[in-house]
Each structure stands twice: as C-alpha cells, then as structure tokens.
Amino acid sequence: MSATTNSAATRIGGVISESQRKAKRTKEDIMAQIDEAGVHFVRIFFTDVLGRLKGMSITRSEIEDVLEQGQGFDGSSIEGFVRIEESDLMAIPDFRTFRILPWEIGGEKVAMMIADIQKPDGTPYDGDPRYVLRRVIDRLEAKGWTGYLGPEIEYFCFGSDKHPEAVDNDGYFDFGHDDIGTEARKKTVNTLELMGIPVECSHHEVAASQHEIDLKYQEAFVMADFAQIYKYVVKEISRQNGLYATFMPKPMFGVNGSGMHVHMSLFENESNLFFDKSDEYHLSEKARQFIAGILKHVSAITLVANQWVNSYKRLVPGYEAPVYVSWGRRNRSSMVRVPMYRVGKEKATRVELRSPDPACNPYLAFALMLEAGLDGIENKMVLPDAIEQNIYGMSADERKELGITAIPGSLDSAIVAFENSEFCKRVLGDHIFNKLIENKRLEWDEYRTHVSTFENDKYLRML
After folding, report:
1. Which residues does 418 contact at the CB level (< 8 Å), separation at least 6?
2. Is the terminal CB of the chain with fewer CB neighbours within 10 Å at N or C?
3. Domain range for residue 349?
4. What is the DSSP string of 68-112?
5. Could you say which of 48, 116, 170, 212 is catalytic?
C-alpha cells in the first residue's frame, strides 16, 4: 500500500474526494447520466448491522422523486434495525456513490447508489452503520485531520456454493496457466476500475482458490463504501464466470483463512501525522499513541472485526493470522505491523492491523479502529516495546514475561470482551451495541448446541 497526498485538486489516482464529489454531483447530473446510458433501474443499497447489503430497485419513472425525497421502507425485518412498532425508515441516496453497473441485469441497464438511513423526521437513524462511521469522520475533521485506509481483502473462489471445491492448485503469487479463478479476478479488477474504484494490485493468495485484491488508499468513509461495492462486484463477476466467491473467513480446514489487513494513516493537509524522520521506526509520537490505542481496545473490537463463529477458526496460530496483542516492524506474527520505511516515501508511513477478516461490517470495523487510535492520541497512551521475535515460537511463559496477551479465541469470549467495553458502547451507540450482543449471543447458542459431523464421526461408535 502507498499513502497519497491530501491534494485539494485530486486524491489517489485521480479519484475525487468525498467533499468534491458531493459538490459536483447534482440530481440533474445523475438524471442526465441515467438517460444518456438508458438506465431502467437504480438499485438503492444500504447495510444492515451485520454488514450485509440490503436494498431496493427504483424504476426510471420514480428515481427523480427518490433523489429529492428518499425512499421509505419497513425497517422491522432488517437485522439490527427497528422494532415492528417503529418500522418506518427512509433511505436517502448519497449522490457521491452513483455508479452505472458495467453489466446488464435481465437485459436492462442498471445503476446503483448507497443510501444513508433516516427516521421519518429527517434525523439520522442511530442503527445505520454508515452513520456510526460518519460520526467518527466528523470527529477527525474537527481536528483538521483526514483518516486514510487501505484494506487488503482476501476471498475464496470455488466451483460451487455447496462445497468448498477448489478450482486451482496455485499458491502465493502464482500465475496459473489454466486458472479460471485468476481470469475472474482480472475481470473483477477491470470492473472495479470501470466503476471508478482504483485497484493497487491483485494476486493469488496462499491457499488454493484464494485471491486478494488491494484497493488504493482512500479517505475512510469512501473506503468503507468501496469495500461494500468490492464484495458485491467480486461475487457478481465470479457468478458470471460459473464460480462462487465467498468472504467466509475459514471455509477449508488445514489451509490459511481469509483476512482483511487494514492499513491506516492520519493526515493534516499535506502532512502525514504518523511520520517522524528522527524516530527509530520513523513513527511520530501520535503514531505511537495511535498504535497504543489499537492495542488497548483490540480485544473488545474483535467482536466487530471478527464477528462470526467461523472467524475464530482462522484466528489460530500457524496460519499467518495474528492472535497475540503486540506490534512490530518485520514481524508478521504481531497484531499490528509497521511496514518498513522507504526513503522519500514519508507519506506512505502507516500502521497495519492484521486481525480483521473480510466478513466484517466495514463501517463499524473502520469506525472502531480509527476511534481506538484517536483514544490513544487523546489520552497520550504509551506504546510498549516492539516485539520482533516470532511470537508463535514462544512458550506461554515467554509470552507472559513479555506481557503479550491474546485476543478472544471464540465468539463467546469476544462477546464478553465487547460487552464489557464502554469504549465500544460509546463509539457504536446503545442501539447497535445492544443489537450486536443480542444477535451474537443467538449465533453462539445455535453453534454451541449444534451436533456436528465431527462429533458423530469421532464419538458415535466410540462412546
């Protein structure tokens, strides 16, 4: 990943910043694009508490009214939204997010927009994950800062949605000669760029049928939208090529799971607040405090960054997924890594959180990551010494001596850490905080009481 300037004209590969796009994009602009392209439907997307895309299709004849007033819907059946007695909500399209899909649906041209959710009185709905991140961005802007994020989003591409059936035998950075998954990945990259979502690089990952596409650094709010569109496009292009893409963290036993390493930096105008040329690691005091905040809150954040029962099948030693709360530079067994400084690349100074997985809700995960770092800065937290040894190779006593703890190892323990965090409650708000606990307790109970094939195979004839 490489950080970029905070230029007033353009940011990141010519992509216009959020404020610029809002200033330039009007209802008339959108209607002109719709008519010029012959768009028949516009899909209005929003995100539920668990990070799943929801939405509705609006016809050409109705879209102008929706752009002006929004679209009402019943929120009582959306996970983590309202109760049935207070079900009316409004989806308000964000003009910045308008895009025409570069494929037809049912022979018709279709466009898309992402919406903010409001209550009927026009106030923001506190169950909208996008609103949670917007509040964090407002806090950054009040300080004159801009948060940049760059996620490395991994996924598996299988031959079926019934079983995790690999379609190649390739490994890390391999170029397969007859690899249908690689072909689909290239088409996905082309599609993303056609939609104005810049891609830095893409490659085959460690496991068979596992891929990674890295989006270029963007402002945090823009990147959360891009992450949702990315997952939508990956699944659609895979489907068009007879494949099934999944962001399930650990779909196969015995191989690496899929992660979403997130690179973060803070800028003030053109200046990277994380860089200090005099520091051993070229990290400023603010960068060190930011990392200290991440380390303090990472266990509580785990329920959001790794929100499924399956997430904890990935978070085990031996498969490159970090489980120990520590930081380092070269050390990829650490939770937080500081990529090596390159001369002349001061703007690329950043920190990388390696524990999240791609099945998280990016709005909530990014909000908590940035707020954890801000908490470290505002409370002047002291960063412990870096750990450059392989933590996986240490004994329990060695880790204890160095003060290295582990993040939760199951959804159950993640719920407890989250539930006891006043920090998470403050950032997410009471509504989402309580809804997540409620949903995840149900998921854990369902998993805990399920009798698996493993248990029958192991115990049925033995006991």
Report:
1. 300, 301, 302, 303, 304, 424, 436, 437
2. C
3. 133-457
4. HH-EEEEGGGSTTS--GGG-EEEEEE-GGG-EEEEEEETTEEEEE
5. 212
Q: Which of 116, 128, 152, 225 is catalytic?
A: 152
Query: What DSSP line would sit under 209-220, residue for residue?
Result: TEEEEEEP-EEH
Tokens 């803070």: give the residue.
266
Q: Is 381 exposed, middle or buried (0-12, 13-18, 19+ CB in 10 A)?
A: buried
Determine the Cα–Cα distance for residues 295 and 407; give it in Å rounded to an integer: 10
Q: Which of 122, 141, 166 is the last residue of a domain?
A: 122
Catalytic residue list contains 141 = no
Predicted TM-score (pTM) of this structure: 0.91
Q: Is 261 a catalytic residue?
A: yes
Question: How far apart are the C-alpha atoms of 44 and 419, rounded to whole Å?
Answer: 33
Each residue of 274-301: pLDDT tens digit? 999 888 888 999 999 999 999 999 999 9
Q: Tell which of 88, 122, 156 closes a domain.
A: 122
Task: Say yes or no: 106 and 147 in one domain.
Answer: no
Residue 183 annotated in active site: no
Specify whether 115 is located in the same domain as 186.
Answer: no
> For 206-236, how does the pLDDT look when each residue is reduced to its tens digit (9 = 90+)?
888 899 999 999 999 999 999 999 999 999 9
Specify whether 378 is located in the same domain as 290.
yes
